[in-house]
Amino acid sequence: MFALVAAMMMMQGLDDTGTAIAQPVGKAILEPVSGSYFQIFEFYGRPPYTWRHAKRMVKGYLHEGREGNLATIKDGSTHYFLILNFPELREQPMWIGLAAECNEQADLIWVDDTNLADTSFRAWNPVAQKKIRDNCKRLEETGTQLPIYYEPSDLGSRWEVSTPTSNITRMMVEFPVPVEEEAPAEGDIGETTVGR
Q1: The pLDDT value given to residue 12
Q2: Which of 141, 173, 142 shows the shortest CA–CA distance to 51?
Q3: CA 79: distance to chain centroid?
Q4: On the CB side of 9, how many CA atoms lie within 13 Å of its CA?
Q5: How far is the C-alpha of 70 from the C-alpha of 59, rounded, in Å?
Q6: How far apart are CA 110 and CA 96, in angstroms?
Q7: How far, in Å, CA of 17 to CA of 162, rounded?
Q8: Residue 102 and residue 61: Cα distance in Å, rounded?
């Protein structure tokens, strides 16, 4: 797997997100409700170990033909599954696939483009949302992304906000069920556009 990741990075070329790569820590575990596999990866090599670099890098990771992304935790069952099956979440901070976008509303967006406002689950540290509001007010209209990570706490693990340049050595990677493209029904030829 390491050789595949290194080869993909060389083919994609390096950018300002860094040159560090990551390796899996333990096995991928199936979460039965969502059907996604989850696995921890750890950076090694020369930093930075930023959220942006992690987000870009995990796109090249595959498990059973599924492409990886930073984990999306949209419900309580996934959150508790991760805490119970990955004790490292209670010991070390880890990147997840959520970031605050500093715009007029400080939208919180998952890596699959779902807005956190459209989901009901939250796992914030007590002052994390205030930090997001304060920082995004200062950075309003810059489009800056403030990454979110799992921070160990007395309650197991909670979401905390970071800066774009923060380094965290571990990340929670999800290998979701592939989205199947819908094939047109038999006899359905779809829409045709005719030029004028």
Answers
A1: 40
A2: 173
A3: 14
A4: 21
A5: 9
A6: 9
A7: 16
A8: 29
- Which residue from 45, 29, 48 is spatially nearest to 37, judged by alpha carbons? 29
SS3 content of the chain, % helix, strand, coil (to 5): 25, 30, 45
CA distances from 147 to 103, 169, 186 (A): 14, 14, 45
Cis-peptide into 48, omega within 30 deg: yes
**Domain boundaries in the chain?**
2-6+26-175
- Cβ atoms of 121 and 134 closer than 8 Å: no
Please choose, from the candidates 173, 149, 165, the residue with its C-alpha nearest in 3D space to the C-alpha of residue 67.
173
Taking the domain 2-6+26-175, which CATH number applies?
3.10.100.10
Report yes or no: 101 and 109 within 8 Å, Cβ to Cβ.
Answer: yes
Q: Work out the mean pLDDT of the chain and round it to a whole number.
A: 84
Closest CA to 39 of 81, 4, 75: 81
Write the DSSP string, 26-38: EEEEE-TTT--EE
Measuring CA to CA, how many Å separate 157 from each of 41, 65, 81, 82, 140?
17, 30, 12, 10, 29
Q: Could you report the per-residue pLDDT of 129-170, keeping only the tens digit for each?
A: 999 999 988 887 777 999 999 999 887 899 999 999 999 999
